[in-house]
């Protein structure tokens, strides 16, 4: 068994265990929901319980590896070339409202490059996995991106960062612009599932800003292994720390990138 396969299998074990915890708390949170500081930026006991089990499993198997987890921050030796980027509950707002669209996302970066990714949606029991050279799967069956090649025949998905209320750089203009140019733009509330849906061809492209590495580490390798393309908005290499990402089926990549770079001010559409 290659190392990547081993990493993938242990990440899968962790994601399945965490997903079972999320399912267990769903609809039973009562007062166990708090704000992290910014309005609308929630955290629940489920986020924390999910993260705890993921950390236990990964640290037991890979005690030398470094970790970046949404609720615990940086853990372990940050100099280590292996970094696990963990989102224990991607889609917390959905989850807190019992809107059933959320996931566990676990990505492994080696020297800063995403190599292994697992995204698990426990409500719909969909397990997305990928590793460099190992392909991309949904419930262990190979997946690939869509073949839509024209923006006006495409469906896209995006998201909005929690600081959207305080910043003018907030994705509203892009959302409006692309809504007019495509068959629709969805806002699902789970960045990792947005990328999983690009990977399995349910949407043709995804863009977002204000993201964190744990939102997209797993999704990047999933989209790439499913035949898609992942870059910055301007088609240069994606920088996971920048928080901005463009992930598509590859066919609409250049046209979506061009539109993102020439978005008119919002008022011109109204
Ligand atoms: C959020 C979700 C959402 C995206 C936000 C993320 P969280 O993650 O992925 O879709 O639009 O930018 O912060 O807080 O639910 O893990
Ligand atoms: Ca997230
Ligand atoms: Ca989260
Ligand atoms: Ca969060």
TrEMBL record:
Enzyme class: hydrolase
PROSITE patterns the record matches: IMP_1, IMP_2
Superkingdom in the source lineage: Bacteria
Keyword presence, Signal: no
Chemical reaction(s) catalysed: a myo-inositol phosphate + H2O = myo-inositol + phosphate
Keywords: Hydrolase, Magnesium, Metal-binding
InterPro entries: IMPase, Inositol_monoP_metal-BS, Inositol_monophosphatase-like, Inositol_monophosphatase_CS, Inositol_monophosphatase_SuhB
Cofactors required: Mg(2+)
KW Magnesium (keyword) present: yes
EC number(s) per entry: 3.1.3.25
Family of the protein in this entry: Belongs to the inositol monophosphatase superfamily.
Protein's recorded name: Inositol-1-monophosphatase
Organism: Nostoc cf. commune SO-36
